[in-house]
Amino acid sequence: xxxxxxxxxxxxxxxxxxxxHPFAPREQARGYYALFARLEKWLCEITxxxxxxxxxxxxxxxxxxx
Length: 66
Fold this sequence. Notes:
It is globular, with a radius of gyration of 13 Å. The longest helix is centred in the middle third of the chain and has 18 residues, at 30-47. The protein has helices at 6-9, 15-18, 30-47, 59-65. The chain is mostly helical. 50% of the residues lie in helices and 0% in strands.
């Protein structure tokens, strides 16, 4: 069984991040899309990669997200 670091899991407990329904309309999730785009950009700048995936690294979490 793979265990994620506690620091990776803490944001999932925040209501601001963990309460968005996976099928919420895009217009209701604009802030999330902006946050993800900014995070991807920062990670690319820091690592030097051309692209970054924010896909969950835990199969169980990915299954929960659909």
